[in-house]
Amino acid sequence: MRRLLLLLILGFSLAACGNDSSTPAPAPTPARVQVAGIWTLSETRTGITGGECLQGSLDSTIGMTGTDTINITQAGPALTAVTTAQANGVSCNWTGTADTDRFVLNLTSCQNNANQFNIRCTNGALRDLRIASAVITATINNTNGNYTGTKAEIYNVTNAGTVTQVGTMTSNENVLMTK
């Protein structure tokens, strides 16, 4: 009898040591930055590369700051935004994604007057700049809730008054986004 009791206790002890078939709790989803709302976006040009015969012609704009209003709508990680330049009212549309400490916006379209026409090269030729793409990448500053980052714009350089492309130009800016 003692032996049977000992075997039963041993059997229950071993069964209790089996695999735990319960599923572990999923890891919590990290919180995404919440950027919905109306912000002020300050852009300070840091450099220009390319530009065909415009190369060097626009260097005087390096260090200049422009200001846009940016209205961002957010649904989870998905972002849509509209920027409006305070200087001339040009508006552009953007889509992107929010992450845990940053967001990225990619240009989808701009009003036609976002392009710049009849810019004189140092050799006297005239060129137009037509926006081809742009991306804004910004990271939250946890001490004040502002965002800092970069913006890169790529323009097609065309002969003035035509769509004949003769080069590309990249404009880089540092950005600061505040409420």
Shape type: elongated
Structurally, the number of domains stands at 1
- Return the CATH class: Mainly Beta
Count of separate DSSP helical elements: 1
Please state the average pLDDT score. Answer: 88
Instruction: Please give the radius of gyration in angstroms.
Output: 28 Å
The tally of beta strands, per DSSP, is 9
What is the CATH architecture assignment? Beta Barrel
Could you tell me the CATH topology label.
Lipocalin
Q: What does the model show?
A:
By secondary structure, this protein is mostly beta strands. It has one domain: Beta Barrel (Lipocalin). An eight-stranded antiparallel β-barrel has the order 1-2-3-4-5-7-8-9. The N terminus is likely disordered.
Characteristic key phrases:
179 residues, eight-stranded antiparallel barrel, disordered N terminus, Lipocalin
How is the topology of this model organized?
Blueprint: H1 2-16, E1 37-50, E2 65-75, E3 78-85, E4 91-98, E5 102-110, E6 116-120, E7 126-140, E8 147-159, E9 165-178
Antiparallel strand pairs: 1-2, 1-9, 2-3, 3-4, 4-5, 5-7, 6-7, 7-8, 8-9
Brief write-up:
With 179 residues, the chain is mainly beta. The chain has one helix and nine strands, in the order αβββββββββ.
